[in-house]
Amino acid sequence: MFGVVFPELSFPMDISSFSQIDPFHWLLDLSSMAGEAYHSVKELCIFLLNPNSLPAGKALAVYAQPPSGPFLFCGALHGSRPSALLRLPWPDPADVAATPAGSSAKIGVSIEDLAALPAVADAGKEEAAARVALKVGENLFNFMQSFCGVDGNRLVVPMDILDQWFKKFQERSRKDPTYLKAFGL
Description:
This protein is an alpha+beta fold. It is built from three helices and eleven strands, in the order E-E-E-E-H-E-E-E-E-E-H-E-E-H. It folds into two domains: 117 residues, no CATH class; 58 residues, no CATH class. It is elongated.
């Protein structure tokens, strides 16, 4: 029915690599592929082997589950969208408590009603935008902090600090094509 590839980490894998929970649900344990470094598996490419394998109005929904965490919706496939490259929304490793022994990250796939799923095109975009905004804000704060002084309980920075930061940000982006990737773009 479907196949999966983890870019730069795996060969194409078919449905037999997943444990079938019931006729509509499959589960892949990432421990054999990534161990405790599940967060290094950033995305997966999933595809229908036959677009007609799903009934009308149904979709193949994809979820990621961090160890001891809830399943997080990643996206879905259906007859008119037979493949997708989906970003896996793992929590930041710094924000996660130690992983309990015996628990691992999982990828879940299920057949669901297409109408009941979140808009496929928008899945994960809000979270990604929030992460990018937070990282850009941290970058600006760190830059400003290196120029600030203290006046009572206020930080004092030069008036042109935003211009200085933005010029430096643009220059670094032009010189290093991978710089913006660190922000999640």
